[in-house]
Automatic annotation (TrEMBL):
InterPro entries xref list: ATP_synth_OSCP/delta_N_sf (IPR026015), ATPase_OSCP/d_CS (IPR020781), ATPase_OSCP/dsu (IPR000711)
Membrane topology value: Peripheral membrane protein
UniProt-recorded name of the protein: ATP synthase subunit delta
Keyword list, A-Z: ATP synthesis, Cell membrane, CF(1), Hydrogen ion transport, Ion transport, Membrane, Transport
Role played: This protein is part of the stalk that links CF(0) to CF(1). It either transmits conformational changes from CF(0) to CF(1) or is implicated in proton conduction. F(1)F(0) ATP synthase produces ATP from ADP in the presence of a proton or sodium gradient. F-type ATPases consist of two structural domains, F(1) containing the extramembraneous catalytic core and F(0) containing the membrane proton channel, linked together by a central stalk and a peripheral stalk. During catalysis, ATP synthesis in the catalytic domain of F(1) is coupled via a rotary mechanism of the central stalk subunits to proton translocation.
Family note: Belongs to the ATPase delta chain family.
Gene of this entry: atpH
Protein localization: Cell membrane; Membrane
């Protein structure tokens, strides 16, 4: 079975437990934090995949690394370690976040801009682009890109809305050539 399918199954089980315990929000925050740690520290997963560590040592590393995480989340990650599935920990967190977002009508968006967006600008972007992808609102991650001349570029899933000045100039240049 491929990793995305396996990650989806673990995430769905975790999501169902979260709904039963009315803890989906808390688990969402925890999984976002864990995902951030795992992405910023790829050596952590490499450590867990080491054949020199026993399963019990892997469990202890997970417990010590995330001491304040709820039982269902920590148990899921320890189960992944037990089954030598450490490589899908980030994918499980992402899949859980996607399940919760789907239920809430939220889409994850990355907005590239020349400067950091204000809260009002983020709200305006969300209100304009969320209906375009059939969602109620957007969860925006702002990436500052000083190479952009101006404007913004919005990526929601596999869709890109390019309103940057550089993008407009490139489209104008293509029109003039053709």
């Amino acid at each position: 079975m491929s990793n995305p399918v396996v990650a989806e199954r673990y995430a769905l089980a975790l999501f169902q437990v979260g709904k039963e315990q009315n803890a989906t929000e808390k688990m969402d925050e925890e999984l976002r934090a864990i995902k951030k740690v795992l992405v910023q520290n790829p050596g952590f997963i490499s450590l867990l995949q080491s054949p020199k560590l026993s399963v019990e040592e892997k469990r202890n590393v997970i417990l010590q690394s995330f001491p304040k995480v709820s039982a269902p989340v920590i148990n899921t990650f320890m189960l992944l370690a037990d089954r030598h599935r450490e490589d899908i920990m980030v994918e499980v967190a992402e899949a859980y976040i996607n399940y919760l977002n789907e239920e809430r009508g939220i889409a994850e968006a990355v907005v590239y801009s020349v400067r950091p967006l204000t809260a009002d600008e983020s709200k305006a972007i969300s209100s304009v682009f969320a209906p375009k992808v059939g969602k109620l609102t957007l969860n925006i991650e702002n990436i500052v890109n000083p190479d952009m001349l101006g404007g913004i570029k919005v990526r929601i899933g596999n869709r890109i809305f390019d309103g940057s000045l550089r993008g407009k100039l490139e489209r104008l240049g293509r029109q003039l050539i053709s």
